[in-house]
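Reader question, answered in our methods column.
A reader sent in the components of a multi-part assembly and asked whether the whole thing could be modeled at once rather than chain by chain. We filled in our standard form and ran it. Here is what they sent:
COMPLEX SIZE: three components
ENTRIES:
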Amino acid sequence: MAAVLRSLWNNRTARAGLLIVGLFLLAISVGGALMPYSATDMDFVNLLMPPDWTHPFGTDSFGRDVLTRVLLGGRVSLAISVIGVALAAMIGIPAGLAAAWYGGWIDQLLMRFADLLFAFPSFVLALFLMVVLGFGVTNVMLAITLVYVPIFARLTRNLALTVREEAYVQAARLMGQSTARILGREILPNIMAPIMVQASISIAFGVIIEAGLSFLGLGVQPPTPSLGVIMADGREYFNQGPWVLTLTGLFISFGLLGLNLLGDGLRDLTDPKLRERTTS
Amino acid sequence: MAESNKPLIAVANLVVSFAQSGGGAFRAVDDVSLTIAPGEVLGIVGESGSGKTTLAKTILRLYKPASGTLIFDGRDIGTLGEGALRPIRRQMQMVFQDPLSSFNPRVRIDDAVALPLRLHGRGSADEISCKVSALLSQVGLGPQFIGRYPHEMSGGQLQRVAIARALAVEPRLIVADEAVSKLDVSVRAQILNLLRDVQASTGVALLFITHDLRVARYLCDRIGVMFFGRLVEIGATEDVFARPRHPYTRALLSTLDDDGGELAALEPPAPASSGGCRYRSRCPIAKVDCAQHRPELQPSTDGKQQVACPYALSS
Amino acid sequence: MSAAVVNEAPLLMVRNLSTRFRMGSVDMMAVRGIDLEIQRREVLGIIGESGSGKSVTGLSLLGLLPAHATVTADHLSFAGRELLPLGEEDFRRLRGTHLAMVFQDPVGAFNPAKSIGWHLDRIIARAATREDRQGIDLTQSAHRWLTDVGIAHPERILPLYPHQLSGGMLQRTLIALSAALQPDLLIADEPTTNLDNIVERQIIGLFRRLKDKLGSAIIFITHDISLAVGLCDRIAVMYAGEIVETGPAEVLFKSPTHPYTAGLIETSRQLDERVGRLKEIPGELPSGLHRPDGCLFAPRCGYVTDACRTSPPPNVTLAPNHSVRCIRHG
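And here is the structure of the entire assembly that came back:
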């Protein structure tokens, strides 16, 4: 792990991403605890105060400190997205591998199913699932999973197809390696790089999906903060207190930027051929 | 060249076909029959599209034949499923044309050689480690290469590792598919010498696929010539080179002469669906009959070669 | 092989050409101080293995290298005109009219959205404007050039698109295109490596005709010395970025002077007899990053002495047309 972090540091893109994401993660994990306020303490004296030293992000319509809410809300949003995407990867990647290896009806079945899901814009799909399953945090996670399973499946399948005909895969077959081993040891490691980039992008957008759903009141329910909930509030009284929506939005963008940079850096680094060049 | 009653490989009427995008099937290997004796070095020469690589890969069961029989050591392996094939797999190995793409880029080369040993349970971790060192040194690579990744080695060095990997589980047949074509000329001699040494010391049979006639002549005991999926001539190397019978073999061999005159523009081969001999569109001795009957391999008049042309059996 | 006209000034003259690639913080010398000349109606072969710098040389001559490459030379002149100071616009005009190149992989040379006929028509028309425009029957010309590269039914090929042709057919078509340009200088980089033996024969024949009929000069880059000897008037042998020997083809073939040239010829010749064991050139090419002090070939040379390892060997002129970079002849 130390070696990986060191290599990441040497790559400029990854370094920037690492710093931003590191800061972000630090902020949302301990920031909430460091703040003198809680996410739910209401202070009716200081309603809708613009940002100042005591409240760097100002206060909202209930007098709650916005920065605290954003930090804790960030944690909630990110956790939801990460779990949803992880589940999607755990289902989608093996499905894609199977489709690429066996071809035939397995491939057809999986790809038609993915096509079906692709027909809907991701947010609409998520919305649809919420309507069917009901509101709440777990269902937001499942919605994110549903949106991303076909993406991981298709990406994995296409990548695996290119690698399947490589000589070293044929050599593995000739050696008598089992199919599972070939998929897991020969093919998957050599296609992980784009998948990891996809994962980081997915987590980033998962946060947006969650924010959107919570914004509409379908996801995380108040008073639990999530970035979407805070933004929903902020939109309500935008004229009186524009800082809530704006600063929360900026906070999200910052985190997403870091994730994207990190994803790019990770991709560069998982290629053993490039590894030589970036560290020399 | 052991004279054995039982051939190691016996291929009869083998057909390998692939589905075509526009519908219909394309026969990469079109009714080919041949045998490989234990310890023999058989060369298959042909140009691109001849089906020689497909034939080799089908013998290794990387592809499944559409029809015909494929017998390995007395056992019919043409129709076996992957599970049943697995224990037989270690007896046939392959050395590929491009050494770099024949290795998983993330696996160290000593691990790559150890893998078949581990898969077939050839000893404890220490024993395997020892065997890997011995194999690498057998192909001329010292201990300084242990721990290296494929991209850190040259083409020639990697091809040696490929040979070591193929030898690891003591196969009875090694298929070398254009094994020296992508290597530099100055390295080719090294690898050819190595293949020869390895073959002599282990007695493994070698199926050598190439388009380079001179390399085939150097290495092989017998040579088969393929043209668009058909085996048109097969015989002992000296005989095929001294007295090529089939018009295609003659055309190929004429390229070895320094000043073979210019050849006329090449007609594409006659379509497979029309029946008859596919070479007739280019053949200098084609007769009307050639469009009606597809020629089968027959012995030449001196009995030395098999030739798929009724008009070229003697000269 | 007709003799080159030696009294004229050379069509291409290169003195002390070097090409450097900047990779991160390191500089890699791909080509080091090479001299070349070629006359009209001459075929010069550049022989080398991978890492010899032969392809980079070809690209350097035509200014086709990427931005992180630097080409320097005392002289690099074509038809009396220095090429290095030329801007990209002027260079581009020269390329595609007087200078042409055939690459090993033909795919990139074609516009995937246009038919083969379209490509040929443009080239034939462009070549014709330099001479006379009248009476050029584009289709007939196109047919003729395609037949010259061994394509039996050119009328079937003209309407097709590049992706519909096999690798071999595409390469032959590219060679036809380059020939149709009727360039003054054609650089062919491994043009027949991916082609079958029989087709290769025809291409060599075509190059010969190009030289004789059109008076083109051809630089033929290949790793196959026996192929070069059959086609080229003179041959330059490259090793690790340097030219180690230059001379007439028959001289190099019958009595090579540099040990590396001798090794290559020997390897090629041996396969003609079924000898017991092939004579090897031991070792491998040096990596491009670390340049040893002495002769680059020293680690693999059968005649190496201590002096070889300490200082780079001089370039010795053995005869007006024949030079070798080896201490044994200095």
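What stands out: Chain A touches chain C through two residues (CB under 8 Å). The mean pLDDT of chain A is 84.
Send us your own complexes using the same form.
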